[in-house]
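call fold(seq) -> tokens
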Amino acid sequence: RDYPSAIRRYAEIVQPPIGRLNLGAVMDAYLREKVPTKKPRTQADYTEAIARLRPVFGAMQPDDLQPKHVYQYLRERSARTRANREVAVLSNVMQQAIEMGLVDANPCRQVRRNPEAPREREVLDAEVAALMAHTPGWMDAYIAIKSLTGLRQGDMLRLTLFAARDD
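ret:
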């Protein structure tokens, strides 16, 4: 019945005043401002992590988040390595909260992550050969260079012709 008050109420629901932004709103700001600057795979990973973090932390006020809450999340999340990645994203969200002037410190930085075990199995030469029987020539070259150098994928993709030397 009263259009101006309805618009004011709608604005409160959609965008609460700056002092009352919860972590869900900060997550939205992070998704809107920072995630699009990342590579597509990272964007997908961060979006998925925020989808898991939002039900747990989204309603909290940024200044209410404490290391004990993050430790509890790490303890209760069954996928321990994945929990480490999600806490890293939560730390990025808290950095966003700092930039927005909502908090002064990032409590995630005080948290020691779950231990991660390295892979227990090395890919066998026979498995690599079986794979290469089904790949195009350029992929065979990629696999051969990767096997010889041990470079990570990102480092391999940044290689240029100038990196090739006789040695």
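The chain is about 60% helix and 0% strand.
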